[in-house]
C-alpha cells in the first residue's frame, strides 16, 4: 500500500452494477440513463449545496474517519459547501453483498439519526500489493431512501483516470467525487473560501496559517532580491532514517549552478527527523520545523540552511517524493516544498536514483525562489 498525503494507502476497487432498491440509481461502466436520472432527481434538485454527512469509509476492511475527511476535502474543493463527517461508523459484516448494504444503512440511520438531508457511505476495496480493485458508494436520504449507488473498477474509464493513476485513498476519493457530480449532473465550482475540510487538513498537516505563509513569501522575495550574494548551507540529505553527506555535497553544487549563488555542504545533520506518518504534508512541515529548530540553536555561518528528503525507488520510478526545506539563519522557514508522483515535475523527471532526486530538488528550489522575480 502506498502511503502519501493521507493516513491510508493503496486500496481496492471491483466493478459491477446492481440495482439496489426501488428509487435508487445503480451505475457502473454505463452512462446514466434517463430512468436513472429520474431516480436521482431528489438529490439532483437539492444541488451542490445539499447538506451531506460522510460516514467513515471502509478501507482495508475497516471504517476509517480519516478517509472520510479526505473525501470531504475533495467534494468541498469541487464546490460542495455543506459537508460534515462523523466518527459514528457504519460497519456491515465483511461478507455482506453490496446489494444488501442499503437496507443495513437504513437501519443504521434509524438507530443513529442525522441532521443532514443526505448521507454517503463508501468502500474502497483492494490490498497493499495489488492496489485498488473496486470503489463503491451509496448516497441515501436521512430516512434511508437510496439516491445513488455506484461501483467502479479498473475497467472503467473514470477509474483509470483517477484511482488507477493515483492508487491510494485520495485517488479513490477523487473518483467518488467525480461520479457524484457526473451522476447528479452538477457543475463543479471552486469554493468561495476556506472550507471546513480544508481547515481540518491544514490542522492535521501542520500547515501554517495565512500570516505565516505571507511572511514566508516575503522571505523568499528577499532571498531572490539578494540572490547573487546569498550563501546556502546544505546539510546531509534525509533518506529514510539515514543521513547522506555525499548526496548533500552533490546537491550543494547543483543549487549553486541553478541559483548562481554560494552553496556549500555542511556536515551538521539533523539530530532527529520527524516520526513516520502517512500524511506527507505533515511529514514535510514536521521536517521544516525540525530544520528551523536545528538552525535556531545556532552554529551556522550561512544566511540560509537547506535540507532535502528524498524517497526514490529505482525499481518503481513512477512512485516517490522529494521534499525541500530552506530556512534563514534565524531559523525562519523560507521554502517548504514537496513534489511527489502526482506532480507533473516528478513525472517528467521520473527519478530513478537519489542523484535524480537531487536534480529535481535543485530545480524545485530554483522555481520557488524565482517565482518572486
Number of distinct beta strands: 15
Please count the helical segments: 12
Shape designation = elongated
Low-confidence stretches: 1-38
Q: What is Rg?
A: 23 Å
Give the name of the CATH architecture of the largest domain.
Answer: Alpha-Beta Complex
In what range is the share of β-strand residues? 15-25%
Say what the CATH topology of the largest domain is: Maf protein
3D structure, described in words:
The chain has 373 residues and is of the alpha/beta class. It has 2 domains: 26-202, Maf protein (Alpha-Beta Complex), CATH 3.90.950; 208-370, Maf protein (Alpha-Beta Complex). It has helices at 34-39, 41-46, 65-78, 101-111, 157-161, 169-184, 196-205, 210-225, 245-259, 280-296, 344-349, 354-370, and strands at residues 26-27, 52-54, 57-59, 62-64, 83-85, 118-127, 131-141, 146-152, 231-234, 237-239, 242-244, 262-265, 304-312, 320-328, 333-340. Strands 1, 2, 3, 4, 5, 6, 7 and 8 form an 8-stranded mixed β-sheet that branches. Strands 12-9-13-14-15 form a 5-stranded mixed β-sheet, sandwiched between helices. The chain has a two-stranded antiparallel sheet with strand order 10-11. Residues 1-38 have low confidence and may be disordered.
